[in-house]
Amino acid sequence: MAVTVSTRRTGRRGNAPRRRSLGYWPYLLPGAVLVAAIVVLPLVQNVYYSFTFYRGIRPPEWIGLANWQHLMHDDRFWQSFTHSIAMIVAMVVVPTLLGLLLAAILFDVVGKKFGGRVASLLRAMFYVPQIIPIVVASIVIGWIARPEDGALNEVLGAVGLDGLQQNWLGDPHFALPTIMTVLIWVQIGYPVVIFMAALQRVDPELYEAAELDGANWWHRFRAITLAVIRPEIFVVVLTCTIAALKVFAPVYALTRGGPGTSTIVPSYYSYSEFFQSQQVGYGAAVSTALTVVIVVVAVGFLILQRFVERREA
Amino acid sequence: MSRRTAWDWVLLALAGLAALIVVLPLLLLLLNSFKTPDDYNNGGPLQVPTHLSFHGIQAFWTRVDFPQKLWNSIFISGTVAVLAVVVSVLNAYALGIGRVRGRFPLLLVFLLANMLPQEALLYPLYNLFKNVGLYDSQWSVIIIFTAIQSAFGTYLLASVYGTFPRELLEAASIDGAGRWRTLWRVVVPVSWQTLSVLLIFFFIWTWNEFLIPVTFLISNDKQTVPLAVASLQGDRLMDVTTTSASALLGLIPTLVFFLLFQRTLTRGVTAGAIK
């Protein structure tokens, strides 16, 4: 990379930078080579693998649509995507709604009546789990949820609620909600920080005018606040939905998809097909399906956003 | 600060309670990482340690050779952060300031590159790095994340450079500076604030990564801090306070980093959303 760049040093003939010429292409070289080698080609190769029988040792064998047909009837595959919906609830729906509420309280009430310092302190507290590696965050919650001597069961026992003690990660009914708790905990700070920053754009005069018109807090919130911070809501919902579809580390660290398949998610399913079952072709089909879903969701969001913006204008 | 009503206090209490619930798991971790397992079992998780014990910290520290893991994480994340910022700058210079032909489809490729699930690249990359002899080498992880982070950086920086003051570029050109000099003498210094935000984000994002490092770094002595913490879960030698201590040691470096760069990080998070 350094080599390509340093040869450019000689080519300094003082072209005006504004002119559109081929002269900027060399600057794209390192980045383009990297993205081609690390992202584009592997992606194409993975799609190819999804049409092959490939166990990682002998070369892949073309079998057409067989993996994809199998996928359509694979309960585990559909189950993994059903769990993705649970991940979206935990990473998008709950944090966005709670985040709106908390950001509004912190900005409107705490910040204005009790001072900016109190508001920033609370904001920082909400944000702390965001900066922890997600695997470590999972282990923190997993540690609290340990079945025999975890803090949660110990506390439940101590206050006489023994009946509520559970094997939080080992019981198929509770493992998924426990993982969802990890994700809500990790995620909540992100919308709070973004929405609080966005609220600063709301013109206080609009609020005062609304107040004079007799609008209550909820009316103001809906008519003014939500309208102003809608771009941020879009960004948060889009980025968090994509992140929710990709969830891997908490499942890997806490349950490995189990007990049974009660916490399996698409990314973990493809990973286990790659490296445990050695069904590389099939794992490639699962991960390609996930890619398609993510691209469709992202493009769908952007189209929706543009549509809403046009309708406003 | 206007007068506070009872309702204001209620809302403050609610927000404060919610914030407390969020930090509670970390307080529990802190409280129990310095106990012996006996102390934990006798007094429960809510009690202050009867005496300060470094049993758990020490056990985890020596078992995983924590300083080594710390260095591995710093080396990988630091190298990725610097390389990815350099690549992002070069790309964005061509796309945002050079306005090369076909820049919109290229930007779309960079955007998608960052959005894709890593699982969809995992096995081909595994084959690729095995073939070139970099499997189980930290350079495999460095190269992969330089590509992925710089894809995001390119997307963001290209739009920042799209509004770069033209007068500055013209002035440089009149002074006889070529493109290469203009980039390093004008564009980089002027956009240094954005670049420093990217640098810090790339560092922390790479630090927190899991799937690709866990696939490519097999040898114990090459692993990063998050891998070291995760690798011991389910190990029967990990008693309750050692597990607690392992998580505590795993989160301290990012917490310190956050406190050091809090302002830059907050600015970055909010700026990224508006883009």
From TrEMBL, chain B:
Membrane-spanning residues: 70-94, 106-126, 138-162, 183-207, 240-261
Keyword terms, alphabetized: Cell membrane, Membrane, Transmembrane, Transmembrane helix, Transport
Transmembrane as UniProt keyword: yes
Membrane topology: Multi-pass membrane protein
Gene3D superfamilies noted in UniProt: MetI-like (1.10.3720.10)
Keyword field contains RNA-binding: no
Domain ABC transmembrane type-1, first and last residues per copy: 70-261
Location within or outside the cell: Cell membrane
Protein family per UniProt: Belongs to the binding-protein-dependent transport system permease family.
PANTHER family in the record: ABC TRANSPORTER PERMEASE PROTEIN MG189-RELATED-RELATED, SN-GLYCEROL-3-PHOSPHATE TRANSPORT SYSTEM PERMEASE PROTEIN UGPE
Protein name: Carbohydrate ABC transporter permease
Organism, as annotated: Nocardioides mangrovi
